[in-house]
Amino acid sequence: MYILLTGLSYRTAPVEVREKLALCTHDLKEAYTCLKNEEGIEGVVILSTCNRMEIYATTRDLDKARERVYAFLAAYSGIKREELKPYLYDLSCYDAIYHLFKVASGLDSMVLGETQILGQVKEAYMRAKEEGATEGVINTLFQKALYVGKRVRTETMIDQHPVSVSYAAVELARSILGTLNGRTVMLIGAGEMSELAAYYLLQNGASSVIVSNRSYENALKLAAKFNGQAVRFDEIENYLLVVDIVISCTAAQHYVMRRDNCYKALQNRGGKKIIMIDIAVPRDIDPELGEIEGVFIYDIDDLKDVIDGSYLARQKAAKQAQKIIDEEMKIFNDWLSCLYVVPVIKALRSWGEEIKQKEITRAFNRLGNLSEREKKIIISMANSIVNQLLHFPIVNLKEMALCHNEGHLYAEVVKKLFSLHIDEGEGIYDDFEVGN
């Protein structure tokens, strides 16, 4: 069984591309239905966040599975495969595992060590299980990744400083305006990222928070937490005349702030500066609104340039985290490598046993009447020959599995050399512990 990862992130693709691959709840269900029924894909987990869209799959045929995933991504995004491919990274086996462990630990995030990604990995895994899209290897992989992410945070304290995409958005606003003291802020969306943004804004001097959301009840709940004001979604335009900062993060699949519902209010500000930070993917704010005098729009990619005040501390913690990941990679890779070779070793032994029994029977038939002592000598000799012939191939195969990152390749070579039949239904997941 091989592990395959195909995806893109803020490192490889701009928001204009990422938003075309963002999956809402309904899309996820359809995506799992499509992918789990594809020939060549045994199990699959889709990790879709603001900053990344990654598909993890287990397969017995890497080329076939990779082809199916590429076809799905092209079809869903509406981007031609040759145009999409430059934005994608394509990892397998050891590299795919290593990447997931880094993601879960927050080492691949836009904001180093961010806290939200571990919950997003868990949510993605649980959703895949609910959809019946996982199997033994991918279950163990994601359980291990969650364990690694928790261990990194517990032992390195990398997430102790309040840094997240929401925090970075607030820092961006402060760097542009100089100070947030006395500023009025409007949050579009009432989810976790909006709540974090409200917390950081008030910590940094904002005087009032206005919250708007499709669900007015949710807007009321969030506003109440910060003694703010909730407004209905269709009233946003009225408040654009008085706010200094807008931070938008909804799950909408289209612009929620557009020319037809915001242009007039923004134009009537008379050039007074307003900062609009769009941290949603797909984007919430139509970039064309930035053409209005005094309107400055920033999207999630602009947060790359925000200076993280705890960057050096997190860099130190990241080095500790790297050591933890390396340790856990060794444990998991040993398990996975053995997973590849155990069925091959069992099949090799069965192959030797079958030949031995066939030749013993043949010898007995040719030799006629033999005493029990003579039969035991022949059987002992046959056992010895087979055991000696298989000893070094088995010992070396185990060693290759544990000492190299490509143990699966050696297993495949032995399979082909001896034309072995592997029972794919063997219960091999219980033979080894991953070490959680």
TrEMBL record:
Site residues, Important for activity: 99
Stored SUPFAM superfamilies: Glutamyl tRNA-reductase catalytic, N-terminal domain (SSF69742), Glutamyl tRNA-reductase dimerization domain (SSF69075), NAD(P)-binding Rossmann-fold domains (SSF51735)
Pathway: Porphyrin-containing compound metabolism; protoporphyrin-IX biosynthesis; 5-aminolevulinate from L-glutamyl-tRNA(Glu): step 1/2
Residues annotated as domain Glutamyl-tRNA reductase N-terminal: 7-156
GO MF annotation: an example: NADP binding
Binding positions (substrate): 49-52, 109, 114-116, 120
Signal peptide: none
Stretches assigned to the Tetrapyrrole biosynthesis glutamyl-tRNA reductase dimerisation domain: 320-420
EC number of the protein: 1.2.1.70
Domain Quinate/shikimate 5-dehydrogenase/glutamyl-tRNA reductase: 171-306
Family statement drawn from the similarity comment of this UniProt entry: Belongs to the glutamyl-tRNA reductase family.
Name of the protein: Glutamyl-tRNA reductase
Organism, as annotated: Thermosyntropha lipolytica DSM 11003
